[in-house]
Structure formats: structure tokens, C-alpha cells
Amino acid sequence: MCALNSREQPLLILASGSPRRRDLLALLGLPFVVCPTDVEEVNQAGEGAAAMAMRLSQAKARAALAYVQSGIIVAADTLVCLDGRVLGKPTGSAEAVDMLRRLRARLHIVFSGVTVIAVQLGWERTALAESTVRMRDYSDEEIAAYVASGDPLDKAGAYAFQHSGFAPASRVVGCYASVMGLPLCHLYRLLCEAGLAPAKTPVDACNRFNRRTCDVALEILR
Asked: Which residue in 23, 38, 77, 137 is the catalytic one?
């Protein structure tokens, strides 16, 4: 849980303990503090993956309100959806192996909800990013080695897109940063609406970070 001193007055608060989200948020060039929140990630009856990603990002952001009195809260939730079914974080190694086998050499959708709350204004907005990911035809031996590393056990869909040793995806259509956990261009737009506009868009920094040129950034930012 968050241990932020209530007397502190941070401008930007990341309601997540994810190292990936910290690295991505840093690309905006804005100072921030980390305030992880604890939200139960359970699918509600009749809830689709897109709605669930947005709801959980909102819940995480609102949970941080208990620890801050001012500033702008940022929270996100990322879900993997295969054949209309949400693949959450695996409960153990066996489930991680099963998920990776089902995803192998197939397309799936990644939804990332991102919520921004301007605390003093009582202003809240949520955006949704949707990306299509094709997994490569990795072997059972590769799956076993990756699962043994422990890396997939806290990841939606049991994989980290950016893992250099496993590198599970062969192609992404959409936002790379979203698949990693934080859709930066969507977040940039929300921060501008909240009155906290970074000096530059995240496009160049994100391209350098991911070592590829994004083909959807300008459309998102338009």
C-alpha cells in the first residue's frame, strides 16, 4: 500500500508499483512520486475486457485519493483478451504455461485503461487503448524456461511484451507502450486536459525507448 506522507504535495502521483509503468511515465519528463494502490482485479458478471480495464484503472486512481490531498493521480490497468476471454495474472506456474500455450502463434487483444484525477479540481477522465498482438511460435522449451524465471507470474496473460530473453510477440498493431502497461499518448492527452501539459509529446522518447517508430501516435494525439 501507499506510504506517502499526507503533508507532501506532489504534482504527479503514479498509483502503481509497476517498474514498467515507472519507466514509461518517466519518458514524459515530469517529476512524479509512486503511490501503489491495492485493488482486487476481478471480472464482474457480464463485463467485457475493455470495460474491465477502464473500471480497474479508475478504481486504482480513486484508491490513491486516500493518501494525497493535491496533485494529479495517474493509474492504469492492462488486460489480455483471447477469444473474448480475459487472461489475468496466472495463479501459478501451471496456469502460466497454459496461457502461453494458448497464446502461441495467435492474435489477441490488449486493452489498457488509463485514468487521471486532478485532486483539487475533482476532475476525472479515463481513456482506453486497444492493440492487437501476434505471438510468435515459441517452443515448449522456451515457455518452460521463461516460466521458471518467475517473470510471467505477475503479468496479465503471463508475459511481458518487452522481455528480452523471451520476446514473445512477433508483431503489434497499435500502441507499444500500451501493451507494456501505460499508453503514453492517451495519457498525454488526459494530462493536457487536466492542465498539466508536458513540454513535449512522448512520441520521440517512446520511439527511442522501444527502438521502433510508432505508426499510431499522431492519430492518437490529433
From this structure: 77
